[in-house]
Amino acid sequence: MEVDQKKLSTELQHTENMAEKASNSSASAELETQNLELEEKESARVLRKVDMRLVPMLSLLYLVAFIDRSNIGNAKIAGMTEDLRMDGLQYNTAVTLFFVPYTLLEVPSNIVLKMMRPSVWMAILMFTWGLSMTFTSLTTSYGGLLAGRFFLGVTESGFFPAATFLLTIWYRRFEVQRRMAVFYVSASLAGAFSGLLAYGIQQLDGRSGLAGWQWIFLIEGLIPVALALVIWKILPDNPETAKFLTQPERDLLVRRLADDSGSGQGVTTNSDKIGKKQIMAGLKDWKIWAATVIFWGNTVGVYGFTATVPSVITGLGYTSANAQLLTIPIYVFAAIVTLGFAWASDLTRMRSPYIIGGYSIAICGFIAQLAIPKPDYPGITYGFLFPVAAGLYCPFTCLVSWIGNSLAPSSKRAVGMALLISVGNMGGIMGSNIYLGREAPKYTTGFSASLAMCCAAIAMTFVLRWAYSRENRLRDEMVAELGEEEIRRRYGEAELLLMGDKSPFFRYTL
Question: Model-level pTM?
């Protein structure tokens, strides 16, 4: 009987201990949940603070940059080609020349960016491209126009890769595309705003002895010069040094970004120094080169389309002034679709399906443009310009975010993203020469080539998704076989950090 009582007492004590442990465990789990909720609320507050400072500023700068590179299309129908006695393919040559230095200098520019303050470097770029555009307004010959376009390409080459890279060092992988889309739709709105601005500036034709197209170049060149004088002071460089944030806020951002490896294990860094090893890693990654084919689907169509769409509309029987205004709804629609795709991509944590979906929309628009007899149905032709623009613009932020998500550490990302944008923008050389004036208003060559590039972009998206998926599966198997602790022991924390996207703990976005 005494033995039974002792046994019962022991069991009761064990039960009480288990209950106490369960209670402590439950309390600990509840406390951890509360701390996590508090940190998420704090993170959301700090990110809103960053959003209000960084994104509108970059969007404004990109709006100005895109207006300056594409306003040659507005200048064309404002009398530039007649005043400079241009004929044949001379206009296409002027458009193309911009992309030669633009594509060659983007990688060197991002290397410089990693070596100095981004705000200072971007201000230098803005000031010099504004001067190039301003001086172009004074040209009286075709040769002067070519010189202006060349130096515009030299000075503007580093801005876009610098701005997109800057976004990736502030936001986690599934936060960045929404911000990048807001930044990028500035390009869509640039088409709309440029048309409206050109329409107004064109009314100055003859004032002070300058033609309407010269006024377009002059006024749109002075804007970035003025902005450059203040941007170096107010544009934040990185989370570690942001003066508009408190120290705890800066620490929170740095900690969140370090944990963003895609697998819940390992860490990443944005504080690494750039060197030969990182530069070569960015240049030799075959997946970046594959992604440039997807990029061409955008640039071949967008640059040809942007420079030609006022002429396409004019060829349908509309006046020059009305053609400028009719471009506005097209770009506004493209901006709305781009934002919608970006939000959906971040929320579903997927990239490739939205790239494929976007280019599929563009394909439908191009097929319609080729099928519609022109200029017999101007309203229908104009209507199908909307899916062309939307389908070309909306995959772009998905692709840039996808590659940005897939490159680490930050030095390799700076080089890799610049390489993607550099080689990708070579599609602008093709796009600038496929919309031939002699084919107006049908532009059969331009629409057909753009259609083919969209199909090639979709095919390469499937290839890249397969490659990333396969690599993720192999790393999952490695971690399952060796275990997290063994991997850490084998490589060491410092080496895992510098391995970046080659780390067994890094996972690619699909």
Answer: 0.81
